[in-house]
Amino acid sequence: MGLDDRKLDVLRAIVEDYVATQEPVGSKALVERHQLGVSPATVRNDMAVLEEEGYIRQPHTSAGRVPTDRGYRLFVDRLSRVKPLTPAERRAIERFLVGAVDLDDVVHRTVRLLAQLTRQVAVVQYPSLARSSVRHLELVPISTTRLMLVMIADTGRVEQRLVELPAPIPADDVIDLRRMVNEKLGGTKLADTPPLVQALVEEVNPQLRPAMTTLATVLLETLVERHEERIALAGTANLARGGLLDFQGSLRPILEALEEEVVLLKLIGEVEPSTTRVRIGDENEIDNLRGTSVVSTGYGPGRTIVGGLGVLGPTRMDYPGTIATVRAVARYVGELLAQN
Amino acid sequence: MGLDDRKLDVLRAIVEDYVATQEPVGSKALVERHQLGVSPATVRNDMAVLEEEGYIRQPHTSAGRVPTDRGYRLFVDRLSRVKPLTPAERRAIERFLVGAVDLDDVVHRTVRLLAQLTRQVAVVQYPSLARSSVRHLELVPISTTRLMLVMIADTGRVEQRLVELPAPIPADDVIDLRRMVNEKLGGTKLADTPPLVQALVEEVNPQLRPAMTTLATVLLETLVERHEERIALAGTANLARGGLLDFQGSLRPILEALEEEVVLLKLIGEVEPSTTRVRIGDENEIDNLRGTSVVSTGYGPGRTIVGGLGVLGPTRMDYPGTIATVRAVARYVGELLAQN
DNA sequence: ACTGGCACTCGCTACAGTCGAGTGCCAGAG
DNA sequence: CTCTGGCACTCGACTGTAGCGAGTGCCAGT
Questions:
Q1: Any CB–CB contact under 8 A between B92 and chain A?
Q2: B175 beta carbon < 7 A from strand C?
Q3: Element housing A172 (H / E)
Q4: pTM for this prediction
Q5: pLDDT digits (tens, 9 = 90+) for B232-276
Q6: pLDDT > 70: what percent of chain A?
Q7: Higher-scoring residue by pLDDT: B130, A69
Q8: Chain C footprint positions (protein CB, under 7 Å)
Q9: What is the 8-class DSSP label of residue B34?
Q10: Calpha distance B336→B254 (Å, rounded)
Q11: Is B281 within 8 Å of A256 (Cβ atoms)?
Q12: Between the N and C ends of chain A, which has fewer C-beta atoms within 10 Å?
């Protein structure tokens, strides 16, 4: 059945009031605070329908109504307009991000900024290596059998790994190795490197082969297997704000989930289109995080996307405001990266 | 007044029982569970004295006794023997730390291990730059006006910073710069570099001076001003374990404190002697962390100390066990680093 | 289609009563 | 002088009852 306009108005009013007050909202309070132009009784009838359709529910018989996940979903999809940022927020963003000296700095500032603006838990993914290109590979001899491999990506990311060589290697050979890997891999998308690395091992002259083989192993491990992705987190203290009224009872499962990089990546890393994604309550794939909502989006220089960022909070959150903030921050970060 | 041996036994028993059960302990339960060889009435008299001296207190009139911070302090200083680790714990430590590929990996594994073993919040400081020596400085040209400065320390730490040059610089000059900084700074303690860096700027030939000046600025900034110290954190979910019985009420101030690097450094970074440090409740300098206890110690290869690590938990914690674990982990990590 | 009225539900608070763990004190034994 | 058993006392935790009030669902009337 089609919900008529007034019922939608009622739902919107319920969501807004509940988000603001954190208390179940009744029919009387609703007509007082919003100009609905009808009586409480009418609103009650509308509420009954909304409840039947699963958009709101009553915590107890004698209490007001609270939006369900489904109700929030409808609200986000059809009833809310994106709130423009206040000038103060704009200024905060600029002030916070100006003066960042390198990628690490940008990411840290961003995640703190997001946490502060939204008053929720913020998560920022470092530019994904999979979406980066190799800018330079550096080999620094540590001893005759040890090299430090430093990879610098065009996104500003720098990764290093220790390479333990099977046999001592003269300094000149290190130079050769460096030249070869840079010639072959420089400028290529990291996602495309595995076959190239393979080729390197096969083409190299026999004398360098053992060294190149271990080097290749480390390269593949670093790029594909291990950390590949990095994540920054901030604002966990905000979880404990609502006096535990949100997150029925225990923060533990949430904190546990937030300690798993894999989980965080799932949350904000899956960025396909450049649109903002909102996951509400049960829509979350992570069991520990049902009961929370996640707003995430991709960021990157220009129109490309190199990573994701977002925030996590109670389902009872200010969606329009949060979405606006997340988008704005992502855009600013993109601009910052574009200056590279 | 001198507490006689039995009173100390009583205090020990109270601490042990309270830590185990999390409930105020009464005189009757005490004589039942420990072989004190006296009646409850006698214990009560002892308790009265202990309370008067400030080692224990009663939450309510009709409840048992609970140790005070002062009581825990006495317990830690004089009444507890360090618990040897179980073989299972030893094995866990080895299994966890074997196979770490580089410093980052070591630190991350260590912090997770500590959190898991102690079931508390674990903090590990990366080897302090102030206590490291420069092994190598690398300059990688990114563009004609940008260099990536990569510093590798003998402790395995690698720091990088982008250097924005005032004017384009030819490739040969970069090589010169690299040679100069390495000759001058290579092998020196980082704490001693500032004057050397200064000297470099003054000695360099005029053509390279502008580049060297900005390079020097970045070097000093990186080493002295900025991150200098890095920290890894794990196990925050353990805070929410005790059902909020510990940490009267809110986790918020604690989580807030844990997000501040400065605070964490204060907690575990001040390592003077190689001994283990225990801060109990109010002894903590950080206001937000009164009500928690911190066990910390230094670690490093051989007898030297390059950084600190420790755990944070409720004042009601298993001190002997925690101290033993923290020490053992620190020792293993030291051995691991010594293999460099 | 909306409204006012009314009976009903049920969580919240206050209050009284009971129970029991634990204490402090004291007189007496060793 | 130290320890012990006994006893009265305190006070938090729990239970049950009662009244209140916010909020609802339903219905008859406009």
A1: no
A2: no
A3: helix A171-185
A4: 0.91
A5: 999 999 998 876 567 766 889 999 999 999 999 999 987 666 689
A6: 95
A7: A69
A8: 2-5, 9-11, 20-26
A9: S
A10: 31
A11: no
A12: N
